[in-house]
Each structure stands twice: as C-alpha cells, then as structure tokens.
Amino acid sequence: MSSKHDIVQEIKTLTRDYVRKGGKTNRRQQHKRMIEFGLFCRDSLQTPNLAAVGKRHVVSYYKSLKKLSDATRLSHYYALKTLFSLAGKTVPVKPFSGSDHEIDC
Questions:
Q1: Is the torsion defined by CA of 75, 80, 86, 88 positive or negative?
Q2: Which range is least confidently modeled, 2-16, 40-54, 90-104?
Q3: Sign of CA dihedral 33, 39, 45, 49
Q4: In angstroms, rounded to a whole number, what is the distance separating the alpha carbons of residues 20 and 1?
C-alpha cells in the first residue's frame, strides 16, 4: 500500500514553497539536507512517512553525521528544525557539540 517514495515525496511537497522564497543558496542547501534526512529515514530505518518520525530517527541521523564538524551538524539541525516546523511537529533534539556526547537531550 505505501511505496518507498512516501516520506521523500512528503518532504518535497512540504518544502516546495519554502525553497521558492528568500535567500536561494541557503534554502536550497537546507532543502537538500531535509531530503537527505528523508532518504536516511526511508532507506536505513524503513520509515513510511513523516508522521512516523520521532526522536529515535533524529538521533540515528545525527550519529550517521558524527564525522562532520559541529557547525555542519548544527546546520543539519536547523534544516530539521525547519522541516519539523513545516510539518507541525515538535522541535527535534539538538546535536551536542562536545566530543564525548552525540546529542543534547
């Protein structure tokens, strides 16, 4: 009944107007990060849609980004924060900047 494209297509639909307005370069970069999150959830965690996404998905995504700098992980957080806002979900957990912790709960 549900195809593998559901969550990614849902993100594209939600962010269509977001990408059209304002600072183009940053919005395109944030949109790309939102799509990357959707692909991660779909391919790694078999998440059917955005409604099924929760803290566990966000934490797993951050763990997959641990090789990136703190600033880049923070940029991914801002993209997820915008995505969750567009979807009407609560704000996702923020990545932790310390070396001994992955996220700040």
A1: negative
A2: 90-104
A3: positive
A4: 32
Tokens 């996220």, located at residue: 103
46: left (phi over 0), alpha (psi -120 to 50) or beta: left
The structure's pTM equals 0.83
Size of the chain, expressed as the number of residues it contains: 105
pLDDT digits (tens, 9 = 90+) for 40-85: 999 999 999 999 999 999 999 999 999 999 999 999 999 999 999 9
Q: Which residue has the tokens 């703190």?
A: 70
CA dist 16 and 27 (Å) reads 11
* Contacting residues for 80 by C-beta, under 8 A, at least 6 apart: 33, 34, 37, 58, 61, 92
pLDDT bin (cut points 50, 70, 90) of residue 103 is low
DSSP state of 89: P
Token digits for 11?
């993100």
What token pair was written down for 88?
Answer: 């009407």
